[in-house]
């Protein structure tokens, strides 16, 4: 799984003119599911993201996590994060999971974050969405679940 995290003061997603998901201060996460991903990938990302210390404390240092600040989250599925672009001028998405699998892991990731106490808004899987992000910082981080899982094998 590939996740792009953006720290936000607020974010929302609209489908056909209707707001279907939103969050206040916290994170907007674009989430791409690869064909070889499984529940372990979602679990590794969820655990890392909700505990990542990227929110500022009273000394303006990034020492606090989403949980520490009672932050919210907006999760938006985004298969284009799996684009292969080395050859030609049109990206291919062969690494992206098929829709049924991708949606199941997207929902699983969101439910894991909820189970950790985070208020989670979502987009509509497979829909054309307009995502409005009020970035805070800006703080933008990319994560790859395979990197997280590999570091656990090495002892990280």
Outline:
This protein is of the alpha/beta class and 156 residues long.
Characterization of the model:
By secondary structure, the chain is α/β, with parallel strands linked by helices. It has one domain (2-154): D-tyrosyl-tRNA(Tyr) deacylase (D-tyrosyl-trna(Tyr) Deacylase, Chain: A). The protein is built from three helices and eight strands; from the N terminus they run βββαβββαββα. The strands form two sheets. Strands 1, 2, 3, 6, 7 and 8 form a six-stranded mixed beta sheet that branches.
Keywords, separated by commas or semicolons:
26% helix; two-stranded antiparallel ribbon; alpha/beta; 3 helices; D-tyrosyl-trna(Tyr) Deacylase, Chain: A; 156 residues; six-stranded mixed beta sheet
CATH superfamily: D-tyrosyl-tRNA(Tyr) deacylase
CATH class designation: Alpha Beta
Strand content is 35-45%
Number of domains: 1
Ranges where pLDDT stays below 50 over 5 or more residues in a row are none
How would you describe the shape?
globular
């Amino acid at each position: 799984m590939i996740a792009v995290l953006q720290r936000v003061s607020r974010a929302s997603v609209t489908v056909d003119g209707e707001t279907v998901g939103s969050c206040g201060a916290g994170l907007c996460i674009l989430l791409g599911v690869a064909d070889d991903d499984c529940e372990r990938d979602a679990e590794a990302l969820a655990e890392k993201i909700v505990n990542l210390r990227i929110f500022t404390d009273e000394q303006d240092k990034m020492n606090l996590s989403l949980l520490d600040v009672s932050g919210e989250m907006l999760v938006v599925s985004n298969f284009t994060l799996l684009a292969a672009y080395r050859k030609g001028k049109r990206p291919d998405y062969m690494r992206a999971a098929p829709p049924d699998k991708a949606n199941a892991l997207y929902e699983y990731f969101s439910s894991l974050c909820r189970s950790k106490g985070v208020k989670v808004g979502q987009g509509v899987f497979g829909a054309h969405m307009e995502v409005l992000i009020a970035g805070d910082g800006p703080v933008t981080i990319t994560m790859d679940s395979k990197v997280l899982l590999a570091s656990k094998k090495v002892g990280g």
